[in-house]
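Write out this protein's structure.
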Amino acid sequence: MNYYIFVLIAIVFSFLIGWFLRKQISKKTISSAETRAKNILTKAKVKQQEIFFSAREDSLKFAEKSKKEETKRREELKVLENRLEQRRELFEKKILELDKKQNKISVDLNKIEGAKDKVRELYREAKAKLEKISGLNKQEAKDLLFDSIEKEFKDDLLLRIKKLKQEGGEEIEKQTKQLMVDVMERMDMSHFSERSSSTVLLPSDEMKGRIIGREGRNIKVIEQLTGVEVIVDDTPEAIIISSFNPIRRQLAKLSIEKLILDGRIQPARIESVISQTKKELAKEIKKAGEATVQETGVAGLNAKIIQALGRLKYRTSYGQNVLLHSIEVANLSEMLAIELGANVAIAKKAGLIHDIGKAIDFEIQGTHTELGKDLAEKYNIQEKIITAAMEHHDDHPSTLEGVIVKVADAISSSRPGARRDSYEKYVKRLKELEEIAKVFPGVEKSYAIQAGRELRVFVKSGEIDDLIAGKMAQKISKRIEEELKYPGEIKVTVIRENRITEYAR
């Protein structure tokens, strides 16, 4: 019993001791926390005072700096005011000086006007006295003076005019030739003559019979469907396709070549092959037009115009391929436009489409310029481009771009070997050229030389003087332009020669 009491007392005592110790520890902890809080507050107050004093010092410095800057700006403004005042005074002095000069000028002008009036009066008096003395009015005196000058200085005037014309013509010709040479050197395109017939090579002469067919059925079908003439003659291993329509000629050639490779040559198969070849040829024409536009760099053309350009691949003019000719004219027009400061885009596009009418002139009646103009207007090509393109055969194009296209067309078509011409046409052109000069009075003889590029006219020196000879050369040139069609230009030279012969005996 005593043991349990003792244990209970020990437990109570232990509890009291723990409670006491805990209370003491709590007091110490609270005391320590209060001490730390006081220290933090003390430090915060000290920091606050430091910040306050630092801010106060900074504000004083800023105020002092602002005061100095304000003082400096006031000084600068004062200097500017002084300068403005000086300039104002100077400006006022200048105005006073200008006023004085203006007054002086006004006085001088009044004096000059007075002097002019006096001179006019003296001129009228002198003129009246001269008319009274000579008995001539102003126009009669003027005519008399000009007649006397013309008689006295006629030879000198003729020589001077001749020299000026020669020098000006030589300089213009020199510059023109140099420009043409530069352009042609930069433009290098191969050209060849084409004919109005095509040759199809055969593997053997036996193939001729198969192409003709029984009683000529095969060849008749080919000619009816293609619109060409197939000539089977004694030429070994070859037949000739003749037609002035190049597209039909190409269609017949391709179709016959396919039939030869296929080996089945009979009317039904011929119709099938020709129908298929027509579609392929249409695609080839479209491809040729697109390639042309891409090669020349001309954009904005209607699809129908591009297709018409492709048709020119199978069109020739005097043996010259029209598509290659059009590409060449477009490039030449571009170069000339750059050199002459013209509109390059208009000149190049006009050069490309200048012969577009030849794509349909063997199907529709009319000249190729009229057909080309209608075609271009139908597909909304600009009026400036149409004008420049369709004036390439006019004697006097209305625009600079039109002149450029005309010159480029002449350069391309008159290159050696570019076109073929018959001997009869060549001789006829030379005779017509010589006959034009012979109709003028005083002409002794005339000769067309340099392949018709120059006409030399010999006149009778007793009937024709130098002044009339110069006028005759101009008249002959104008008549040639009006009556003849020719590529390039023709030089007209009138020769007047005096020969005096004496004998010493």
